[in-house]
Every structure is written in C-alpha cells, then in structure tokens.
Design a protein that fits this description.
The complex is a heterodimer. Chain A is an alpha/beta fold. Chain A has four domains: about 1-15 and about 430-445 and about 490-605, Alpha-Beta Plaits, CATH 3.30.70; about 30-105 and about 450-490, no CATH class; about 115-205 and about 355-420, FAD/NAD(P)-binding domain (3-Layer(bba) Sandwich); about 210-350, FAD/NAD(P)-binding domain, CATH 3.50.50.60. Chain A contains 22 helices and 23 strands. In chain A, the strands form seven sheets. In chain A, strands 3-2-1-4-15 form a five-stranded parallel β-sheet, covered by helices on one side. Chain B has one domain (about 25-320): 3-Layer(aba) Sandwich (Rossmann fold). Chain B is an alpha/beta fold. The mean pLDDT of chain B is about 90. Helices cover about 30% and strands about 20% of the residues of chain B. The longest helix of chain B has 15 residues, at about 40-50. In chain B, the strands form three sheets. In chain B, strands 2-1-3-4-8-7-13-9 form an eight-stranded mixed β-sheet, with helices on both faces. In chain B, strands 10-12-11 form a three-stranded antiparallel β-sheet. Chain B has helices at about 40-50, 70, 90-100, 110-120, 120-130, 175-180, 195-205, 230-235, 285-300, 315-320, 335, 340-350; strands at about 60-65, 80-85, 105-110, 135-140, 140-145, 150, 185-190, 210-215, 240, 240-245, 260-265, 270-275, 305-310. The chains are: A alpha/beta, B alpha/beta. The interface of A and B includes residues 505, 537, 539, 566 and 568 of A.
C-alpha cells in the first residue's frame, strides 16, 4: 500500500493561528481587540471599552466615525448572513459615553534625555508620541499648519468628524507632554538632522493631490484639487461653490468632496467614474451615504477636456466607455463609443494623492525609489539613513488612519530600540493568552447563544436638516439601547474552540450538535485532501483547518473548519470529556518599551 | 444535557435533497441526554438517513417506549408523527399503526431494556409478523435512566461502574431476530456513521421487519475499563464483517463484478444493497450460516457488524393477511364501516 502523506497537526502554539480566527482583529492593522470591547459595551462598561480600544488604535472617537473599517468586510457575520457587525459605530458609542476626563493615560516616566523630532502633527506622529512620551522621551512635533490632526482635520469634513472630537483625543496625547510647534513647516531635512535629535520621524502624509492634465486645465480658477479644496473648506477659506459640480473620481475623497459641495450651495452634484461600479475605490458605505444625499454617480465616462467659454468654465467633455470583461470580471479591453459634454460650474479632481518630499535633500543618505517614494523598511519603518523613520502616508503612500496609527506604534518600537543601541530588527514576537471561559456546566463567561438579529442602521439627521450648516454631524451614533442589540450580533470569535486530542473518546457528540457542520473526524491526510471530505464544504482558504494529532482510540484526526464556526460553544457543552473547551484568546502585541512578552498561559481542557 | 437551543444558523454551502430540504430540516429538539451519549449519534445518523432518502418528514412515524433510547425520537424529524408508548409496548403500537396505514415509514427506536427485558415478547411477535418497519435498538448494556444496573444485553464478565461483575448470560438481539425469522438483521456501532447510515437506509427501505442492533455506549454508566459496551472496547473488538452500500433506484452500481465476494440484493422499490464480505465464509443470505458465524464470533468477544442477514422475499404482515392495500384513512366511510346489515349478513353465515 502506498504511504499517504499525512498533514502535521495544526501548530496552535503559534499565536497567528487563533489570531486569524478573530477575523476583525486580524484584519485591523492595529489588531484592536474588537470582540473584547464589544463585550464590554454589552456589559455597559463603556469607559473600559474605550480604554481597550485606545490601547491599540489611540483614537476611538475619531475612528468610530471615519475609520476605513477593514474589520467589517472581514467580519465572520458577513459570511453567515449578509451584513457584518457594525463594529466601527460600536466603537463610537464607547467614545460617546466615556467621560474623557476619566480616561486613564499611562504614567509618564522620568525624562530619559532622548529627543525625537516628528515632522507633521497627523495621526502617525501622534501615535508615535503616544507611545514614546510615557517612556520619558521628549517629542518635538513640527506642524506646517496652525492646528493638529493632519488630514483628519483638513480632509475629512466636519459633518463626518466634528473638530471637538479631534481636539479631545489629540489633546490627550499632546497633554502627555508633546512639544508641538504650529506654523512651523520643516523646509530642510539637512537642517533638521543638524539639530541633533536622537531620531527623526517623518509623518508628513501624502499632501499632493493628483492633477489631471487635460486641455483647458489652467484656463479657469473653478477647477479644484480635491484635498486642497477640502482643506480650504475646513479652514473656512472657501465658503461656497457653484450650483453644478462635477467630481472626478470615485474614491473616498470624492465622496467627501461631493457631500461637502452639497453643503456649500450646489444643488446638482455628479460624481464621474471612468469605470463600472465594481471598480470603484470608495468604500460601499461611503458610496451609500453619498447616494442617500442624492449625489448622482455616472459610470463609464472618461474625462477628455475642460470646456472654457468666454474665459469661464462651461463644462467637461467625456468619452463614453465600454469595457470588455474576462471571466474573472477583470477589464480586458475598452472601447470609446462616443463623446458627451456635461455642463458645470465647478470641477473637483479627486483622483488620488501622492507623497511629496521637496524638503528632503537628496544627498542626506535618504533614498527614494523611482516614484519619489522613500525606501522604507516595512517592519522597522526606518529609511535608508539610520535614525530617520517614516510612518503614515509618508511611508508607503496613501493608506488610511488606522494604518498610520499602526505605523506609529511600530516606529515607536524601532525608535526605542534605536535610542538604546539595540538592533531594531530584533523585535518581540506576538504572544497570546488562552483562558478557559467555562463557568459551569452550561455557563460560559460570554453570551454564547446565537442572536439572529439583523444589522441595526445608525440613526442619522434627516436629509432636510443636514445641509443647513456645514458642520451638522450627519450620524447621530447608536443609542445605548440600539448598541445593546447590535452587540449581540457579535459571534465572539476570540472565544476559541480549543481541542485536547488525548481526551477525545470519539463519541461524535460535537460533530452531531454543531449547527454549521464545521467538525469532522476522519482519516489523516493532507490539508487539500482533508478539505474534500469534511462534513460541509470548506472552500474559504483564508480560514485555517484545525487538524488534531492522532486520536487515542482509532488514530483518526479531528478536523475543525474555522470558516463558519459561530462560537456557540455547543461542541464544548456536548463534549463528555472536555476535550473541547472555549478559551478566551488575548493577543499580546508588543509595544515600545515591552521588555518581554509574558509566557503564554495555556490551559488544557481538563 | 444542554439548555441552549441549537442556533438556527445554517452553513450556506450545506447540500439540499430532492425535496429542497437540508439535513438541518430533519432535526428535532436539542437532546437532553448526557453529553457524549451514543444515542445522539444514532439520532444524527437517522437525520442523515431521512435526508438522503428524500423522505418527506410528514410521511414518517416515530415510535418508542421508555428509556434513554426512547427519548430520542424527540430529537429528530420534528415534523413527523410520533408515539411514545408504554414501556416495552412500542412493537404493538407500531403493529397497530402499520395495520391501518401501510404508506408511512415506521421507525421504532428502542433500547436493550425496552426490547430485551420488559418488551421482549412484543419484539418477538413483531418480528414474527414481519411488520414493515425499521426497528433500532440503542444497545448500551445498562439501565441508564435508573443509574446503570446491568441490562439483559450485558455480557458475562462485564463490570458495572462501581466494579460489580455481571454473571447472567446476555440476550443477543441479532441471534434472537435470526431465530424468530427476521428478514433484515444488522448490527452496528454509534461511533461508525459510515457504516450506520447505509444500514439505516437499507433497513428503512426493506419491506419487512428490519432490526438494527446498535452498540451505543452509555458515557455516564458504561464507558469505563471493564465494560464490554464502551467506546474503547467496541473499537478494539470491532469486526465490520459485511460492508454495506445502499444504492438508490436511479443510480448505477459502480462495484466491479470481478469482486467475487460482492452480493447485490434488490429491494422492493428498485434500490439495492451491495454487500461486500470481508470474510469468505460468511453468507448474509443464509440464515443458518449467519447464525453459526455470529454465535462463534460473539463467543470470541468479537463485535460482528454489518448487514448480517437479508431476505427480501418473505411476505410482510399485509401480504400474509391479505389486508386491503389502501391506508384506512383513504377508504371512504361507507366502505370502512358497512352498516348493520353487512354485520347481519356475516352473522347469518354462522347460523
């Protein structure tokens, strides 16, 4: 008989295995303990939920409104039914109901004599300051504008993110002792380097909006660059716009531009897209919000020229596009089927943004690639010159706030090591704790029963009221009552099903009771082979199979497909020998200043 | 036992049968048996069986007596008919129900106490009449509901949880059934659904009395060292003698005819059971040889499993008694209840 290749049992001692099961936490760049804070909200412990959030993402109030929410498309709930848990807006209620004066900030260690310069007072620099200030660093932030927050303040309209929320959360960090210099653009890296800082962090963002070089571009002053225009609106330099506005591009900035236009007096806003809807860059929810405000999104129109009549912008000419898709839905080719002129008073270009480093001299040992983006190590965030670090959009091009926060955390680890003469590449690994959630025969320390409720929409200001003022916040946020319903939709994916194979008597009780048929006992085999003979199809390769070692009685193996497990705990309740246990997974993510990761606590099922 | 309802959430990739139902549509209430009870696995195998046979739940009648096993009809096919009878009397109730409506699928679930002690006579007579039904014995060798005393199927030498040794010889359900003329005799194990599901499908399709004796360990009172009905003991002494495949009518048999040890038996509805022997000496169509084989190997403490005997030719109760073909419920009232004059006519024949 041919010898079968048998897969190794899953290595569950590697924190990545269970971490991946917590889809939201795994997807979050800062690895926020989402189910953890959702449970705290469920218990009414809003301040604790805020605190847990703040530990990872620093800006719960801000991110609870405007996060790009990579967690939500990842949410397991969206694989079980249609909509994910409203993770982002739950974060907001934790912030709404927390008294900011009660937020516990870390104690500040005595000054360690090290001075760090940060370029830009945006989210990346602030995250870095948040991590380094408590360790005794002197953090000096140089900001070109007269207020902090970077793009959070200049590019996100106040009807989505009120300035007071920014002030509160940024104030907490500045209040820890950051030395912030406004109206202080850094104009020379060389000069900055000569000032003798122990390390320099560049968090200057991607401040250059992309232009569209088409005929007529410079013949009118009514053609605006999206992010610059949003900034001048935020600073109240621009207070009106024409009645008919064309927004070019369908990213999230375009959505902010079209909604801002509506509040500055335009009545006819069209968002012009070159490609069909499936290729839009904007998040679904931002598209929905814009469309709800009667913004028209026109697809398959490729900009060709600006029409200037009598020295005035009269409209834009577009080519009508048709796309041929392949079987996977990718564009194979395109054809132009005609042209059309759309009249307008203003055009806003929201087609992307670039990094810009005119202030970094190219002879300072800081290398740039062919796109003028600095060469940055993706782990340490150090550029090619030792002691100069990059984060946020300045590091790898435009991303989003939560990525910038994580860059700040990682750069803080590097800078801390760098300033202490340690190897910045020698970083602590992720750790984890696993604690049994068993409280009694049928009692668990979490709400394990499946709630079939549908996603609850966030209450909003009525359409008729919204446009009266620029700064009326559209979303009202969840009430505690609505939040209490929404939290029950969370599947508690961090309550891991932990299997202890030597306790198993192969009675099949867990397999029989599992509502989503994710368990199987079968002969060992390779993972590809095993995936073909499970109780239910296991087609999502993003989620792992938990493969046990040989079971004591027959030598077969227990397989769990993590994909659709609803963490109802029935397997553990029906297990006569406690071979299955529900254990709370806590990710131990190293921060700047962590000397060591504590030893993982592992409990057997017994 | 579990208090929580099983979540209604369904795996989006779960297959559906010809009726458009998923296996979850054949489930019942959540089991209140001990966690790890073999009976729950048998229940789950029955769910799978009904799902795969495309049986509409409302065309099934579930019957049981008293005991842990007899609680299980509540845990599958909640949309079916059910009757929970007096201890050991399920065969009579099944016989009665079957007499008046032969079109339903009858599933009796009983235990070793219900069938081999208090209801032993009932079982024998249902076999003798060849009532068309599937008769499942969840056999764990103890009285679980009364804290684990030895039952009539406990082997000599097996120990109770506290250590007492059983000295009474057991009643073997399969040997009894063979003696009584049973037309479908099988033995299986709750921990082997790959074997159990095809057997249940064949038994439910078989026209006549199909007895399946299932070793179904009692985790609470009979799963210790020294027990001969524990998961561990059963696995160590497990002998799948006859491998059974159930082939529905429309499907072709893919077993190669070169395999000399393969026997194919056609069932009344056109489906087939394909039996592959793992032991040449065995003949599942010869009652005497089956009896001898079973007795010899049981004496050697082997748990012989599979479809041990099948006889598709013997007439069932309805054929023997030439009962009207329609279920009584489908017969109009006047035909079913002839007037007084009809009774007088009959009485006159005896005057």
């Amino acid at each position: 008989m041919q010898k079968k290749t048998v897969s190794q049992p899953t290595d569950t001692t590697n924190p990545d295995y269970y971490h991946r099961v917590v889809d939201c936490q795994w997807a979050c760049p800062a690895h926020t303990d989402v189910p953890g804070y959702i449970r705290l909200i469920a218990q009414g412990e809003y301040s604790d939920a805020y605190q847990l959030n703040r530990h990872s993402n620093i800006f719960p109030g801000i991110l609870g409104r405007v996060c790009d929410r990579p967690c939500e498309p990842a949410c397991r709930r969206s694989r079980i039914e249609d909509k994910p848990v409203a993770i982002c807006r739950l974060k907001r209620i934790a912030a709404d109901l927390t008294d900011m004066n009660d937020v516990q900030l870390p104690e500040i260690a005595p000054a360690n004599g090290k001075r760090i310069a940060c370029v830009g007072a945006g989210c990346a620099s602030l995250a870095l300051a948040n991590d380094l200030l408590p360790l005794g660093y002197e953090v000096v932030i140089f900001e070109a504008l007269d207020r902090s927050g970077g793009l959070m303040r200049t590019n996100i309209p106040s009807f989505r993110l009120p300035p007071e929320v920014l002030d509160q959360e940024i104030g907490m960090i500045i209040g820890m002792g950051a030395d912030i210099h406004f109206d202080h653009p850094v104009e020379s890296m060389k000069t900055l380097l000569e000032e003798g800082y122990d390390a320099i962090f560049v968090g200057s963002g991607a401040p250059k909006g992309k232009n569209l070089e088409l005929p007529g571009r410079y013949d009118s002053d009514r053609i605006h660059i999206g992010i610059d225009w949003l900034e001048s609106v935020a600073f109240e330099h621009t207070e009106s716009i024409g009645e008919r506005v064309l927004i070019i591009g369908v990213g999230n900035t375009a959505m902010d531009c079209c909604r801002t236009s509506l509040r500055l007096g335009s009545t006819d806003v069209k968002v012009m897209a070159r490609k069909p809807r499936a290729f839009f860059k904007a998040s679904d929810w931002e598209l929905e919000d814009a469309e709800e405000e009667n913004v028209e999104i026109i697809v398959n129109h490729s900009p060709k020229a600006f029409v200037i009549e009598d020295g005035k912008l009269a409209g834009m000419i577009f080519e009508l596009m048709e796309y041929q898709l392949d079987s996977a839905g990718r564009i194979e080719s395109s054809t132009v089927t005609g042209e059309t002129m759309i009249p307008c008073d203003d055009v806003v270009l929201a087609i992307g943004q670039d990094n810009a480093f005119p202030w970094i001299e190219r002879d300072q040992g800081i290398e740039f690639d062919q796109w003028e983006v600095p060469v940055v190590d993706p782990v340490t965030h150090q550029g090619t010159r030792a002691g100069v670090f990059f984060g946020g959009d300045a590091a790898f091009g435009p991303k989003n706030i939560i990525w910038a926060v994580e860059h700040g955390h990682q750069a803080a680890i590097s800078i801390h090591k760098y300033c202490h003469g340690e190897d910045i590449t020698d970083r602590l690994p992720m750790g984890m704790n696993l604690n049994s959630a068993k409280m009694g025969i049928h009692e668990w320390s979490f709400s394990n029963s499946y709630d079939s409720g549908k996603r609850i929409p966030v209450p909003q200001v009525q359409l008729s009221e919204r446009f009266k003022q620029l700064n009326i916040e559209v979303e009202l946020g969840f009430s505690p009552e609505l939040a209490a319903e929404e939290v029950e939709r969370c599947l508690n994916c961090d309550l891991q099903t932990v299997f202890t194979e030597n306790l198993c008597i192969e009675c099949d009780a867990c397999i029989d009771v599992c509502p989503v048929k994710c368990l199987t006992i079968t002969e060992a085999g390779t993972e590809d082979d095993l995936r073909t003979r499970l109780s239910a199809p296991a087609e999502n390769l993003e989620q792992g199979l938990l493969i046990s070692g040989a079971l004591p009685q027959t030598g077969r193996v227990m397989i769990k497909d993590e994909d659709l497990c609803v963490h109802c705990s029935l397997c553990a309740e029906r297990c006569p020998t406690a071979a299955w246990d529900m254990q709370k997974f806590t990710l131990l993510k190293p921060c700047a200043g962590d000397e060591s990761v504590s030893e993982p606590i592992r409990q057997s099922g017994a | 036992m579990t208090y929580m309802r099983r979540p209604s959430v369904v795996h989006p990739g779960l297959p559906h049968n010809d009726l458009g139902l998923s296996a979850r549509d054949y489930e019942g209430g959540i089991s209140t048996l001990c966690a790890g009870c073999g009976h729950d696995s048998v229940t789950s195998a029955l769910v799978q069986t009904l799902f795969e046979l495309n049986i509409p739940p409302h065309r099934v009648a579930k019957l049981s007596g008293i005991g842990c096993s007899s609680k299980t009809p509540a845990y599958f096919a909640s949309a079916s008919h059910g009757f929970n009878s007096v201890h050991g009397r399920m065969p009579s109730v099944a016989t009665g129900a079957n007499s008046v409506n032969r079109d339903l699928h009858y599933i009796g679930v009983s235990g070793d106490g219900d069938s081999l002690s208090i209801g032993f006579g009932q079982l024998c007579h249902a076999i003798r009449r060849n009532v068309n039904m599937l008769y499942v014995i969840d056999n764990n060798g103890v009285y679980g509901l009364t804290k684990g005393q030895f039952s009539a199927s406990a082997d000599v030498g097996t120990t109770a949880k506290k250590g007492e040794v059983n000295i009474q010889p057991p009643i073997d359900a399969c040997l009894t059934a063979l003696t009584m003329g049973c037309t479908f005799v099988a033995r299986s194990f709750s921990g082997d659904k790959q074997q159990l599901v095809p057997l249940l499908k064949a038994g439910l399709t078989h026209k006549g009395f199909a007895l399946i004796d299932i070793v179904s360990p009692c985790v609470t009172f009979n799963d210790h060292l020294g027990s001969t009905k524990s998961y561990d003991f059963t696995r160590q002494h497990y002998h799948p003698t006859i491998h059974t495949d159930f082939i529905p009518p429309a499907e072709e048999i893919t077993v190669s005819s070169e395999d000399g040890d393969t026997i194919s038996v056609e069932l009344h509805d056109g489906s087939r059971v394909v039996l592959k022997k793992t032991d040449e000496q065995y003949d599942p169509t010869d009652r005497n040889s089956a009896y001898a084989y079973l007795q010899k190997h049981t004496a050697a403490q082997e748990v012989v499993t599979g479809l041990l005997f099948i006889d598709e030719a013997k007439p069932d109760m309805h054929e023997t008694h030439m009962v009207v073909e329609q279920p009584l419920i489908d017969i109009d009232f006047d035909t079913l209840c002839p007037r007084r004059s009809a009774l007088e006519k009959i009485q006159n024949r005896f005057r």
